[in-house]
Design brief:
Layout (H helix, E strand, L loop, with lengths): L2 E9 H13 L4 E6 L18 E9 L4 H12 L5 E6 L4 H8 L3 E2 L4 E5 L10 E5 L11 H12 L6 E5 L5 H8 L4 E5 L3 H13 L7 E4 L12 E5 L2 H13 L6 E8 L3 H8 L3 E9 L2 E8 L7
Parallel strand pairs: 6-7, 8-9, 8-11, 9-10, 11-12
Antiparallel strand pairs: 1-3, 1-4, 2-3, 5-6, 12-14, 13-14
Helix pairs in contact: 1-2, 4-5, 7-8
Length: about 300
């Protein structure tokens, strides 16, 4: 069934009122989008930032009398902001998304392949992925940077901790690249479920993957490699804990970091790690390093 889409071009200050008005006028769903290609970076605690200019879009059933809707909005909002009404063609939106998510090469050995696609290079290491509701398809620069890094490491027989595992893509990639065991940590139970499902999809034996919430990670956990693709603020806060997971010579890769945040991350982690290196992609950073032989008290 086709739908009618009504889009209001408004400002941050009026976005919430516009959203409420569209729902009051009968919209089945409302979305808010950036109207001016303005990035919104990492929010502070309890902050819910919006863009300066916002498109607030209401979705109405095809037989809705839009003149009546517009009249109702005028009564609620007063003078209507700039707006547009259009017919939204009927689509299978799940298939639309699936068609845009294609196999992706992440280095010399590793490919990320949607579970509904045939691998482009069957002889390569192909990670078959269905991200579900969890973050991590390989296409975001932060995930891609971590996958590239893992592809270059010698992981045979090693234990890897994937902190902030999302879909499990990094931990499962490490296992397929030769790691003996992975501990996948996330504060979202849906992410742990997605990780376990994707591991099973890739033929990973259950004993090689342990999934847990951060509070359930044993205090004496240790690994040869730690990857943490989260955000700058939690990376800064978690630095002592992540450092404590590694012995001298252990490897770490951090991502979810904007170029502008790289200096603060390097300064923080230089207490425990040497050879800190930065690699960037589309304004995002990966920072990797080697655990020092002598470090501050944990």
């Amino acid at each position: 069934m086709p739908w009618i889409q009504l889009q209001l071009h408004t400002t941050r200050e009026h976005a919430s009122d516009s959203e409420d008005a569209l729902l009051a006028a009968g919209a089945a769903a409302v979305t808010l989008e950036d109207s001016a290609d303005q990035p919104v970076f990492e929010p502070g605690v309890n902050e819910h930032p919006l863009w300066d200019l916002v498109n607030v879009t209401g979705l109405f059933e095809a037989d809705t009398a839009m003149p009546a809707v517009l009249a109702a909005l005028e009564l609620i909002l007063g003078e209507l902001p700039s707006h547009r009404v259009e017919i939204l063609e009927d689509k299978d939106w799940e298939r639309e998304w699936m068609s845009r998510y294609q196999p992706l090469a992440c280095g010399e050995r590793l490919w990320i392949c949607p579970s509904w696609c045939e691998p482009e290079q069957p002889e390569a290491i192909n990670l078959m992925l269905d991200p579900g509701l969890a973050f991590g398809t390989g296409t975001h620069p932060t995930t891609f940077l971590c996958l590239q890094w893992l592809d270059r490491q010698e992981l045979t027989g090693k234990t890897v901790i994937d902190y902030g595992c999302g879909s499990g893509i990094l931990g499962i990639a490490a296992l397929l690249l030769g790691a003996e065991r992975v501990i996948a940590v996330d504060n979202d139970p849906q992410a742990l479920t997605a990780t376990a499902d994707n591991a099973q999809r890739n033929g990973i034996a259950a004993e090689r993957l342990h999934c847990c919430l951060p509070e359930d990670l044993p205090a004496d956990s240790r690994a040869d490699v730690v990857v943490a693709n989260i955000l700058a603020a939690p990376l800064l806060e978690l630095a002592p804990q992540l450092a404590a997971l590694l012995p001298a010579g252990g490897l770490i890769a951090l991502s979810g970091i904007l170029d502008s945040q790289g200096e603060a991350i390097c300064e923080r982690y230089s207490q425990w790690f040497d050879q800190l290196q930065r690699h960037s992609r589309d304004e995002w950073l990966r920072i990797s390093g080697v655990k020092q032989s002598t470090t501050p008290a944990q």
